[in-house]
Amino acid sequence: MQKLSMLAGNVFSGVPLDRVDHLRTDTAWIEARLNDPASRFVPVWNQQSIVFDGAEPRAALNDRQSIAELLDSNAPLAFLGVTPDDGGIAHFAVDFSHLPEETLTARYTGGALMDLRDSVQLVPAHEASILAYARGLMYWHRKNGFCAACGHKSETRRAGHERVCTNPACGAVHFPRTDSAVIVLVHDGDDCLLCRQSHWPTGMHSTLAGFLEPGESLEEAVAREIFEESGVQVADVRYHSSQPWPFPASIMVGFMAKANSREINVDDKELEYAHWYGRDWLRNVVDSDDFRMPGKYSIARRLIGDWIDGNFQV
Q: Is the pLDDT of residue 77 over 50?
């Protein structure tokens, strides 16, 4: 499949693999790829990835031979896809969370376990997207070992992209879950609305966000969340871009929205506070314990940056 051009370019998107959905049920083909010396395996350990440090840090994407003894430990696997060139090299996510940390790190000499929020700032963008894909899929497997319908054990199917209940009387099929959330840069002239939650890192401020509820459109979710959390009413809601967000299993749908009111009345169960911040002030502010921007890998930072620089028509 031809890859779409990355119009938005948000981190964790643009996985450089063809997912070849039609081959997930071809067990002979999957088995051949599992034993192919050219195939690559992406390790996950308790939602962390392995990164090799150095002048050019890289994610661990090992061939089968180099980690054969670990693969023989009945580690859960999921097929990710194939590269669109190089003859179509298959990539698999493999969850080693059942192994002691020292067993894993001893095999990956020179590598370190890292949270994705840390590793994304080191490895190339295309590798970060693969790590996010692997983390999200293996997290779903770890949290869905039992059928949500009847409570019996479930087992993996379709090369790791389904789980099926083992109870013959049930047989429910479960699919990887992605929770939809809206994230919004609210603006009014040369001011934008940013907020802070008390559990965030010291000084961290960001845009407002919240999960989509049943029976509402994305635009309705934007208006509801902004009003519920800040008391500000919005209009002219415009889609910006989206970002896979495997923390643990969301898709962040980004919007710009024009404020119809400025008075702030925060829901203190959700926010510590919210304030209006000027464009010029944000352009020149230096991160400190009093104020810092979201991480550069986040869609929140992208929304703020595009608004400051006028890169999005509002």
A: yes
